[in-house]
């Protein structure tokens, strides 16, 4: 019996013409896996001969896969402009992009001065700089969409850190934290990957799968980041976020395999923001991963890796952004998101014409794109 993701013989014959190793940022729906794909912990994620769909690409990014071997299917005609392509053409996004670039340049200058002059980081100045990003949008929800539409600065550690800091700031507001705690959480996001500055560039930027030794070296960025920040007069939670942002609630993370409440809440929020940005970045070549695919990953794979007391309220706020938005299903039917299912955020109720469809009751249906 053919499985859910089996290909017909014609597709396989076309796909096997050439095997390519492709960076995860360049993987697009329509590629076919040429090898079984395993996580860094040797967990099977996808088998070979699977035709990739957006939610599968999101799953690969969720597990931090950097590149895969694929067969390439025949090119499909380019579809009309996506929702996020339209956002990128808006005047608001153009203004946001300009402010974002200014903030990026100023933070680079600040970091370079701190390193060259061996001074303490000016936390107040950094937070003030980051808050400029919040002052030119219609609201917090829309800011996340603008950040989601940003697609020029792929593979830059600092840009990723700025994105994570903005997401952490939003999460802090959504969790009704004090302004002081939100500022600290914002800096947790900005500084979480600071240990990567001591990592070998040839390993950090390696397009292919890391060897076991190389992965052990990369995992060291958490401890290195903690040591670097220990020389700074900063809130201890910022140091902990650098150390713990790869820890997981079930104890499967690193470097200390901490479990449950042993992981600081600020570190857990930073971890969620880190993965969320990683899954919605690197979009120059493949277009944006559907946010509902991201939600699906957190609902399934994420339910044991992240503290549900933190992750689910945050995912609910993200899902609320798309109420009344038009979406396309995997059947190419389009409808409007009407109501969220609290037990299945990635499967809301949508309206198609005069019909209401509860996606949580249809396992064969999923949202493919926001249009």
Overview of this protein structure:
The protein is of the alpha+beta class. The chain contains 15 helices and 10 strands. The chain has helices at 9-15, 54-62, 83-88, 91-117, 123-131, 140-149, 157-174, 179-191, 201-204, 212-219, 221-230, 236-244, 265-279, 291-299, 308-320; strands spanning 19-23, 32-33, 37-38, 44-46, 67-71, 326-329, 334-341, 344-352, 355-358, 367-370. It has a 5-stranded antiparallel sheet. The radius of gyration is 21 Å and the shape is globular. Residues 1-5 have low confidence and may be disordered.
Summarize the structure.
The chain is α+β, with helices and mostly antiparallel strands.
What descriptors fit this protein?
371 residues, five-stranded antiparallel sheet, three-stranded antiparallel sheet, 10 strands
What is the secondary structure topology, with strand pairs?
Blueprint: H1 9-15, E1 19-23, E2 32-33, E3 37-38, E4 44-46, H2 54-62, E5 67-71, H3 83-88, H4 91-117, H5 123-131, H6 140-149, H7 157-174, H8 179-191, H9 201-204, H10 212-219, H11 221-230, H12 236-244, H13 265-279, H14 291-299, H15 308-320, E6 326-329, E7 334-341, E8 344-352, E9 355-358, E10 367-370
Antiparallel strand pairs: 1-5, 2-5, 3-4, 6-7, 6-10, 7-8, 8-9
Helix pairs in contact: 2-13, 2-14, 7-8, 7-13, 8-12, 11-12, 12-13, 14-15
Low-confidence stretches: 1-5
The amount of helix comes to: 40-55%
The helix tally amounts to 15
Main β-sheet, in a few words? Answer: 5 strands, antiparallel
């Amino acid at each position: 019996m053919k499985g859910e993701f089996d290909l017909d013989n014609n597709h396989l014959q076309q796909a096997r013409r050439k095997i390519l190793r492709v960076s995860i940022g360049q993987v697009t729906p329509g590629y076919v896996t040429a090898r079984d794909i395993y996580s860094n912990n040797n967990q099977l994620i996808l088998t070979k001969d699977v035709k990739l769909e957006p939610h599968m690409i999101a799953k690969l990014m969720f597990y931090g896969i950097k590149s895969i071997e694929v067969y390439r299917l025949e090119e499909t005609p380019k579809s009309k402009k996506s929702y996020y392509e339209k956002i990128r053409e808006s005047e608001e996004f153009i203004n946001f992009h300009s402010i974002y670039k200014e903030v990026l340049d100023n933070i680079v200058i600040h970091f370079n001065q701190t390193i060259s002059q061996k001074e303490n980081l000016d936390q107040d100045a950094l937070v003030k700089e980051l808050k400029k990003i919040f002052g030119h949008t219609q609201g917090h929800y829309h800011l996340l969409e603008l950040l989601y539409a940003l697609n020029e600065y792929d593979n830059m550690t600092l840009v990723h850190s700025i994105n994570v800091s903005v997401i952490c700031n939003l999460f802090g507001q959504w969790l009704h934290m004090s302004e002081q705690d939100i500022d600290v959480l914002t800096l947790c996001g900005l500084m979480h990957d600071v240990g990567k500055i001591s990592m070998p560039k040839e390993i950090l930027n390696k397009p292919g799968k890391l060897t076991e030794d190389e992965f052990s070296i990369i995992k060291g960025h958490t401890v290195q980041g903690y040591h670097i920040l220990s020389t700074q007069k900063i809130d201890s939670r910022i140091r902990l976020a650098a150390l713990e942002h790869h820890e997981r609630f079930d104890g499967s993370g690193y470097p200390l395999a901490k479990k449950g409440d042993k992981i600081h809440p600020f570190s857990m929020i930073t971890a969620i923001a880190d993965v969320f940005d990683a899954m919605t970045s690197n979009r120059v070549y493949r277009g944006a991963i559907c946010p509902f695919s991201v939600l699906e990953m957190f609902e399934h794979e994420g339910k044991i890796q992240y503290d549900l007391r933190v992750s689910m309220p945050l995912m609910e706020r993200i899902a609320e952004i798309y109420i009344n938005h038009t979406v396309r299903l995997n059947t190419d039917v389009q409808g409007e998101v009407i109501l969220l299912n609290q037990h299945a955020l990635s499967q809301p109720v949508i309206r198609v014409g005069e019909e209401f469809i509860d996606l949580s009751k249809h396992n064969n249906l999923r949202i493919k794109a926001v249009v």
